[in-house]
Design brief:
Helix content: 10-25%
Oligomer: single chain
Radius of gyration: 13 Å
Structural class: mainly beta
Strand order of the largest sheet: 1-2-3-4-5
Distance between the termini: 28 Å
Largest sheet: 5 strands, antiparallel
Number of helices: 1
């Protein structure tokens, strides 16, 4: 069980290292939970005027997550899930 995590509670930007292309900053936006999910986060490109939707990450009560989308590789999904789970607000 992952009870010690500090999940992201407000919009933030995450730096993602891409294997096949330039690294990118992703906008992570908390969303209303969807069917059985305890936490849900929408993912967008960070700096475009009309941002691309990159999918979403859903977490269950035990802290397991699943990516709902087709734009990110498994490594990129893992980076974003880790960012969300271990988020610490910078002062």
């Amino acid at each position: 069980m992952m009870t010690a995590n500090h999940y992201l509670t407000q919009e933030a930007r995450a730096f993602v290292k891409r294997k096949d292309g330039p690294d990118e900053v992703i906008r992570v936006v908390p969303d209303h939970p969807h069917r059985g999910a305890a936490q849900c986060y929408q993912l967008y490109t960070a700096f475009e005027e009309m941002p691309d939707n990159l999918g979403r990450i859903l977490f269950d009560e035990q802290g397991y997550w699943i990516y709902d989308g087709d734009q990110l590789s498994i490594a990129e999904q893992e980076q974003l899930a880790d960012f969300i789970i271990n988020y610490v607000e910078r002062l």
